[in-house]
Amino acid sequence: MKSRLLLVSFILVVGSSAVRAALSYSDPSPTAQSERKVKTKGGKSFDRDKSKPVRKEIGDWYQSNIAAFNAKDVAAIMALRADDFHTMTPDGKVNTRADMETRTKLLLDRIDHFISQDFQIGTIDLQGDLASADITQRTVRMQRLPDGKLHKVEAAVVQRETWKRTPQGWKLFTVDNIRDGVLLVDDQPYKP
């Protein structure tokens, strides 16, 4: 059961994506006219930035997160999370930032290396300094299980991730609404 929790913890901790993009959201420089769109809704006009700057910044966040996990650098991983970062499991349990840091250390101690980390950002909902989206993620790694041997572990899940805009850039704030999880060990469904 404990090993299953560590495997699932990885899903909660990673919150990453293979999106590649340049930072531009905090850059106040004017956006080219071709990247702007005026949209009218309910009799009100909205000027939209078609360059999707928030998506680009969050994509960069994911690149940093992937690099930190590949390096097995817990300090770098936690630096990408807000001071009040927390997760909520499907059974309603809240895990604090400290809880997730401990789980991250335990998980990384068992991982030999990552084969791949693939994360797709869904539609981003921006509400002030918070941005949230459903993330579809799949990781494949070589991991030591309780039998002491290295195994190929594939984990996939969909979850909502919310980031908080800070003076240092976007930081992961919450992970919740975790669903559609799949866990394979050596290409077979995992049975704890």
Question: What report would you give on this structure?
Answer:
The chain is α+β, with helices and mostly antiparallel strands and 192 residues long. The radius of gyration is 18 Å and the shape is globular. It starts with a helix and ends with a strand. It has a single domain (2-26, 47-189), classed as Nuclear Transport Factor 2, Chain: A, CATH 3.10.450.50. Helix 1 packs across helix 4. It has helices spanning 2-14, 53-71, 74-79, 97-110, and strands at 36-41, 44-49, 81-88, 94-96, 111-121, 125-127, 130-144, 150-166, 169-185, 188-189.
List its traits.
single chain, 192 residues, alpha+beta, Nuclear Transport Factor 2, Chain: A, eight-stranded mixed sheet, two-stranded antiparallel ribbon, 10 strands
Please render the helix and strand layout as text.
Layout (H helix, E strand, L loop, with lengths): L1 H13 L21 E6 L2 E6 L3 H19 L2 H6 L1 E8 L5 E3 H14 E11 L3 E3 L2 E15 L5 E17 L2 E17 L2 E2 L3
Parallel strand pairs: 3-9
Antiparallel strand pairs: 1-2, 3-4, 5-7, 6-7, 7-8, 8-9, 9-10
Helix pairs in contact: 1-4
